[in-house]
Structure formats: structure tokens, C-alpha cells
């Protein structure tokens, strides 16, 4: 008798009955938009990040744009970032009227190559947006040394890095602006959402105005608008999910780390030599293992590889196509060949399944399928 295999997605959120009950309680309360649960979630996040001010939002995209605006970034300014990220990382720079400038990536970590950053700094450069790819932090010492040397603001795109650390300190507990995403595939999620870690109470107050049409209130009927804000607030329903997820973050990340270790064990030390495929950096000290990437050898057509995996009911992702190759960015003067490492990686990278509900047997199934496609 043949057992029918279930489809294994590349990611899946863990939602328990307590989280479902918490959302139901919010709905029964009648306070569905920003309210007491948002305030509680922000307080718990602030505690998690060592007491720094934290404000929540309806995405991890607007968090970066608002950080840029708080930093005074606008038309005439340049902001350095990586071509290897979700396009939002660069789009927010354009949204402020500033100009995105890319530096290529490190071939091992797939983070921005900090050794190439200084070469693209000009008198117009005002900030840098590094991305902690897959939860693996950039070299924070080198990053902030460059920022201090050139008086740059740093907006860390830590969308994938909640629970990651650098030399024992949590990402978000130090530095400048730090932006996190709570989109559904992240290590903790609120469905959609994000938070921004700020430096001062004054920045936090300004962030509050930017997230809700620039409005500030006083007394029972005092209202003013002094900045051009948007509609970016988090709902209490989302915050209720976030509180439940945050309570389990350590558990979730421990399971991700164990699964990543299992992947390395199953692939074996000679996997790259045998197949030409590249495994990620085996960092079990700093990374939260948000994703597990492999870079396929040039002899493999990625779409055909993904289809073969789908044929055995295993879902894959690919993260990411280089930003500068999108039409919007080609129209701004970027061309193929400008960032060869990002282009090589972006052409052949695939994301393997990795989420807390997976089992060792799932990992074995994935590795077996990958090897059968490569050998």
C-alpha cells in the first residue's frame, strides 16, 4: 500500500488555540483597531529590545520609510542598500524622494558587502539600509564604524532577524533604527505587520504621527497635523496574535536552528564538492535561521528544478531576484552586470522548507529530493 505524501510548503505559520482565543476576545471587546493590545505588544517588544522605544505598524515596509523620514532623508539625498532583498527595501528610498545606491553582496553571507560600501559613498550619501539576510546579521562592528566615519544614519532592515544576535546582543537592542517585519512567513507574525525600534521618545512620538496621518492630539478636542503622515497603524487583532507569537519566539527559533542543523547533517560535508551547489553559512551563534537557502550550480535550470520538487509535493521559494534588474530600476539607469555576485546568486538561489512544525522526517524528504534532482 502506497502512502500519499502531503504537500510540504516552504513555510507555514504556527497558530495555537491561545492565539485564536486572543483574537476572538479582541473581537468580542469591540475594540478592533489600535488600542490596548497594541500598547501591550509595544511594551513587550520594548522589553525584548532592552527598553528601547518601539512602535508597531501594519507592515515592515512603512517602518523603513518612516525611519528615513524621521532621519530627514529626502530629495537630493542618496541611501546605500543591497540589490539582494525584497524590492521594498529600495522602494522606500524612492518613496522619500531620495536616490537608491547599491553595493554588491558577499558571496557567502549574501548580505551587503561592506568592503564595497565606501566606494559608493558621496557627499550626498545620508544613510545606509543593510539587510540581515535570512536572519544572519551583517558585520555590525564594521557597519557602524562606516556609519560613524561618514556620519550616516543606519536603518537596519531586520525584517527576517527577530531573535538574531550579534556578539551576544539581540539585533534591535542596539544600533540606530531597526525595522522588523511580522508578515506571515516571518519567525513571528501578526498576519501582516511590523515594528520599528527607535532611539528616543521624541523619535517615537514622531513615528506615531507619521503612522496616523500626521495627527497629534491634546485634551478632549485638540488636534493638529504637522507632518505628512499615512495610515499605517496596527490593529488590536494583529497585536493579539503578535503577543502570542512573541511568547513562543524562543521555542520557534530553537526549532528552526535544530532543523537547519539537520539539513547540514543530511547534506553532508561533501555536498558542495559533489554537486556544485552552495549551502548557507553554518552560523549557529547569531542567526535565527529564518530561511535556508541553497545556490544551485550553473548547470541546473532553476525553474525545472523547482518543478521537479513540486512533482514530489515539496514547495520552494526563491529569495530574491536582484532589485536592480526590475524594470522600475532599469528605468533609473541600472543594468545587468553592475552587481555580478547578486546576479549570480539571484539567478540560482532557492529557499528550502523551514518552519517550526516541520519534522526531521520532512527534512530528510527535502534533502533526498534535492539530491535526486542534482545527481
List the helices and strands and how they pair.
Blueprint: H1 17-29, H2 36-48, E1 54-57, H3 62-70, E2 78-81, H4 88-95, E3 99-102, E4 125-129, H5 140-150, E5 153-157, E6 165-166, E7 169-170, E8 177-181, E9 194-197, H6 201-211, E10 215-218, E11 222-225, H7 236-247, H8 249-267, H9 271-275, E12 292-295, H10 302-311, H11 327-330, H12 340-348, E13 349-352, H13 360-374
Helix pairs in contact: 1-7, 2-7, 3-4, 3-6, 8-13
Strand content: 5-15%
Count of helical stretches: 13
Biggest sheet details: 7 strands, mixed
Structural class: alpha/beta
- End-to-end Cα distance: 28 Å
Compute the average pLDDT. Answer: 97
- Helix share of residues? 25-40%
In order across it, which strands form the biggest sheet?
Answer: 1-9-8-5-4-2-3
Give the overall silhouette. globular
Could you give the order of the helices and strands?
HHEHEHEEHEEEEEHEEHHHEHHHEH
**Oligomeric category:** single chain
Counted beta strands:
13
Low-pLDDT residue intervals, each spanning 5 or more residues: none
The gyration radius over C-alpha positions equals 21 Å
Description:
The chain contains 13 helices and 13 strands. It has helices at 17-29, 36-48, 62-70, 88-95, 140-150, 201-211, 236-247, 249-267, 271-275, 302-311, 327-330, 340-348, 360-374; strands spanning 54-57, 78-81, 99-102, 125-129, 153-157, 165-166, 169-170, 177-181, 194-197, 215-218, 222-225, 292-295, 349-352. Strand 10 (215-218) and strand 11 form a beta hairpin. The longest helix has 19 residues, at 249-267.
